[in-house]
Design brief:
six-stranded antiparallel sheet; 34% helix; alpha+beta; seven-stranded mixed sheet
Length: 709
C-alpha cells in the first residue's frame, strides 16, 4: 500500500511539473510573440541581406524644336526609422531638441497638417520605435531638396532616421499635345506609342545594390562598395514640331467641338523627307470633352473619295482614259450588277456628261465607278496590282506601335464580288489608314517619290547623337512623269476650278493648294451604313507650285450630322493648318536692309558671358569686330565699350561667387556645380540675375537661385 501511494505521488508530481513547464513555455511564447515580437522580427529582417536591382532612369523624348514631350522626374516617399541609433541615443535628446522646429517646417512646406499634428505623429512614432514609419508620400524633387535642409533631417539618415525611397514618375509636360503618339509609360499599364516602339532604348540597363531588410520587409542600402550603377536610358529626338503640333491639334479640336464629332485625326508630313511634323488624334469622352485616346491616324477605315486619286493614277498609267475623255454622271445615280452607286457630294447635275478630270473635281462616285468598271471589269487584277504596288495592302512601316493592317480584296478570294471594282474606285470595299493616304498624296507632291513616314530623328546618349534616322524612299517613282503631271492638274483643279468641291474653301488664299475632299459612310461593325455616320476627309499639299507640307484630315461625325461633307468639315481644318504654316514657315519675308556696322553705332547696352573660346568663335563666325582684353582666362564676358564689343576676363574662384549674368544656363550650372553650389532655377533662356552677389564668400553646399530671362 505504501509502495502504491509512493508511486502515485511521484506520478502526480511529475504530471504537475510537466504542466507547469507547459504553462511557462506558453507564457514565454506569448510574451515573445506579442510583447517582444516587433523586436525579434526587426532583428530577423536586419540579418537578411541580398542583392536587389536598381532601376535605370528612363530616357527623355524630345520634339524637333528641343521641347520635352515625355520625361522622368524623381518622386520621393519619405520614411522615418525611429529605431536608428542616432535618433535614440541619449534618450532621444537630438530628436526632441529638433521636434518643435522640424514640425513647424514640415507644416509650412507641405501644408497638409499643422505643426501640432506633425509633432504628435513624430512623437508617437518615436514612442513606438517604428522602424519604417511612412511620413510623406509622393514628394517632388524641389520639396525634397528643401526637406533635406530641415532641422534633424540635415544631419543625415544615420542621425535623423529619415529615409527616402526614390521612384521615377513619367511626365508628359504638354499633356494633350501628341499624347497618344508619344505614348504612355505607367505602372501596371501597357505601353503605347513611341514609349512602346523605343522601349528598349528608353529603358536603359538595371544596376544592383546590396540591401538589408528592416521592419516590414523594407530594404535599405548596406554598402556602396557592393553596388553596380545602372545605365540610364537613351534619349529620343522626334520629328514632331511642338508649334506645328499645337496648330494641328487646335484646328482639329475647334472643328470637332463645333460639329460635335466622334473622333478624328490630322497628320502633317514634310514633303521631301516624309518626316511626321504633327499627328493629332482626338476622341470624344463620356463627359463630352476630347482627348488623345487612340491612334486613329494608323487605324484602317474605308477612305472614301480621297482614294479616287489612286483610281485616277491606275486609269491614266494604264492608258485606259485621258483627262478629256467624257463620262455620263447619270444624274448622280447609277445601277450596276443590281446595286446603285450614289454621289455623296452635291454638284451641278444640269450637265451630266463631263470630262474625267471634271468628274474627279466634283468628286462624282458615279463618274469614277463607271470609268474604273469600264477599264477593269475584264481585268480586275490589273487595278488591284496598282493598289498593291502603292503599298496599300501592307502597313506603312511607320515607327509607331499599334498600326493596323489595311485590307485589299483580290479577285477570286473571299470578299471579292462583281461590284468590288466600281465600289473600290471611290474608296469603299477597301480599308486603309489616314497615314497611308498621307503617303500617297505626299508622293504626288514629291514628284512621284514615295517616302516612308517616320517619327524618330535621332537617338542621344549624354547629349551625343549615337544614331540618326535617314529618310527612306519606299518607291523612287510611283508612276510616269506624264501621269504625275495629270494627277497634279486634277488635284489643283479640285481647289481652284469653279464649281469643284474645294473651290469656295480656298478662294482668295495667297498660296495654291492641291488636294481632294472625301465623304464616306461608316460601317465599322458597330454601325451600318443605315446609321448615316459620315467620315469627312481632306488630303492635299501646299503650296501647290512648290510643295512643302502634306496634310490629311479625317473626322468621323455623329450620326445624321447635318454638316458632314469633306469640304465643310475636314477642309476647314486643313485650311486653318495650311494658313498658319504658310505664314510661319513657308512665306518668305521681304528682304531686311541691315545698316552697316561701320557707319551705325549700337546705342543699347548688353552683356554676354561664357567660355572664352566659344565667345571668340561666335564673334569670328559673325565677322563682328571686337576687342580682346581677356588674356588667357577660361571664362569671359562681352560688353560694350567705346561702341564696340570687348571681351573681358571673368575670374572664377572656389571661395567667391562669380558673375553669372549673361551666361547660358548650361555654363552657369557647370560653374556652380564645380564649385559645390546647390542651384535653384527659375525661368528659361539666359541668366539675368543671381541670389548670391558677385564676389560674396561662398562655401560648398551654398544655395544659389538663378533667374533666367
Amino acid at each position: 500500500m505504501e509502495v502504491k501511494r509512493d508511486i502515485l505521488w511521484r506520478v502526480s508530481l511529475s504530471y504537475i511539473a510537466v504542466a507547469v513547464l507547459c504553462v511557462v513555455i506558453l507564457v514565454r511564447a506569448f510574451y515573445i510573440q506579442q510583447v517582444e515580437g516587433k523586436y525579434w522580427r526587426n532583428m530577423n529582417d536586419s540579418l537578411h541581406e541580398k542583392l536587389e536591382p536598381i532601376e535605370a532612369e528612363r530616357g527623355t523624348i524630345y520634339s524637333a524644336d528641343g521641347e520635352m514631350l515625355s520625361t522622368s522626374i524623381p518622386q520621393f516617399d519619405v520614411y522615418v526609422d525611429f529605431g536608428a541609433d542616432g535618433v535614440r541615443e541619449n534618450d532621444g535628446k537630438r530628436f526632441f531638441n529638433s521636434l518643435d522646429s522640424l514640425s513647424y517646417q514640415l507644416s509650412k512646406l507641405f501644408k497638409d497638417r499643422n505643426a501640432d499634428e506633425y509633432k504628435r505623429i513624430l512623437r508617437d512614432g518615436y514612442n513606438r520605435a517604428d522602424r519604417y514609419f511612412p511620413l510623406l508620400k509622393k514628394v517632388n524633387f524641389e520639396d525634397y531638396q528643401r526637406l533635406k535642409l530641415f532641422p534633424l533631417v540635415k544631419l543625415g539618415k544615420n542621425k535623423s532616421g529619415f529615409i527616402a525611397d526614390v521612384k521615377s514618375v513619367r511626365l508628359n509636360p504638354y499633356q494633350l499635345l501628341a499624347y497618344r503618339t508619344i505614348g504612355l509609360d505607367r505602372e501596371n499599364s501597357q505601353k503605347v506609342g513611341l514609349e512602346e516602339t523605343y522601349d528598349s532604348l528608353l529603358t536603359g540597363r538595371r544596376g544592383k545594390r546590396l540591401v538589408r531588410y528592416i521592419a516590414g520587409g523594407i530594404s535599405i542600402p548596406v554598402d556602396e562598395d557592393y553596388q553596380i550603377e545602372p545605365e540610364n536610358g537613351k534619349d529620343i529626338v522626334t520629328n514632331i514640331d511642338t508649334h506645328i503640333q499645337d496648330i494641328t491639334e487646335t484646328a482639329l479640336m475647334n472643328e470637332m467641338i463645333s460639329n460635335e464629332a466622334e473622333h478624328g485625326c490630322a497628320i502633317v508630313l514634310e514633303v521631301k523627307t516624309g518626316k511626321i511634323k504633327a499627328i493629332a488624334n482626338l476622341g470624344l469622352r463620356n463627359n463630352g470633352s476630347y482627348w488623345e485616346d487612340l491612334n486613329y491616324a494608323v487605324q484602317p477605315t474605308e477612305p472614301g473619295s480621297t482614294f479616287k486619286l489612286v483610281t485616277m493614277l491606275s486609269l491614266l498609267e494604264d492608258k485606259k482614259i485621258s483627262l478629256t475623255d467624257m463620262v455620263n454622271l447619270e444624274g448622280g445615280r447609277w445601277t450596276v450588277n443590281g446595286q446603285t452607286v450614289i454621289d455623296a457630294e452635291e454638284h451641278d447635275k444640269s450637265d451630266n456628261t463631263v470630262t474625267a478630270k471634271r468628274a474627279f473635281e466634283v468628286s462624282s462616285n458615279v463618274g469614277m465607278a463607271k470609268l474604273a468598271y469600264g477599264g477593269y471589269a475584264a481585268t480586275p487584277s490589273q487595278f488591284v496590282n496598282h493598289i498593291r504596288k502603292l503599298g496599300f495592302d501592307s502597313a506603312t512601316g511607320v515607327d509607331l506601335a499599334g498600326e493596323g493592317r489595311p485590307k485589299v480584296y483580290r479577285p477570286g478570294k473571299p470578299g471579292w464580288s462583281a461590284n468590288t471594282v466600281p465600289w473600290m474606285a471611290f474608296g469603299y470595299n477597301i480599308t486603309v489608314s489616314p497615314l497611308h493616304t498621307a503617303m500617297m498624296y505626299n508622293a504626288i507632291a514629291n514628284n512621284g517619290k514615295m517616302m516612308r513616314p517616320y517619327l524618330m530623328a535621332t537617338v542621344k546618349k549624354d547629349d551625343i547623337v549615337i544614331r540618326e534616322t535617314q529618310p527612306v524612299a519606299v518607291s523612287e517613282k510611283i508612276c510616269s512623269d506624264q501621269t504625275l503631271q495629270q494627277l497634279k492638274e486634277c488635284l489643283r483643279g479640285v481647289c481652284a476650278d469653279s464649281g469643284s468641291t474645294a473651290f469656295k474653301l480656298f478662294k482668295g488664299t495667297p498660296y495654291k493648294v492641291a488636294g481632294k475632299t472625301g465623304t464616306a459612310l461608316v460601317a465599322d461593325g458597330k454601325r451600318t451604313y443605315a446609321d448615316e455616320v459620315f467620315q469627312s476627309s481632306f488630303a492635299g499639299y501646299f503650296p501647290a507650285n512648290d510643295p512643302q507640307y502634306t496634310c490629311v484630315v479625317v473626322i468621323v461625325n455623329h450620326p445624321h450630322a447635318v454638316k458632314h461633307v469633306g469640304a465643310a468639315v475636314a477642309g476647314p481644318v486643313f485650311k486653318d493648318i495650311a494658313d498658319k504654316l504658310y505664314a510661319l514657315y513657308v512665306k518668305q519675308p521681304a528682304p531686311v536692309q541691315y545698316a552697316s556696322v561701320t557707319t551705325t553705332k549700337d546705342s543699347m547696352n548688353y552683356l554676354y558671358a561664357g567660355a572664352k573660346y566659344e565667345v571668340k568663335k561666335i564673334m569670328n563666325a559673325l565677322n563682328v569686330p571686337y576687342g580682346d582684353a581677356g588674356g588667357n582666362a577660361e571664362w569671359a564676358t562681352v560688353s560694350k565699350e567705346a561702341n564696340r564689343p570687348v571681351i573681358q576676363a571673368e575670374s572664377v574662384h572656389d571661395k567667391q561667387m562669380p558673375q553669372l549674368a549673361g551666361m547660358s544656363l548650361k555654363d552657369a550650372i557647370y560653374i556652380c556645380e564645380n564649385m559645390g553650389l546647390k542651384v535653384d532655377i527659375k525661368g528659361r533662356g539666359k541668366v539675368v540675375s543671381q541670389s548670391v552677389n558677385v564676389g560674396e564668400t561662398i562655401n560648398k553646399g551654398t544655395q544659389v537661385q538663378i533667374t533666367l530671362n
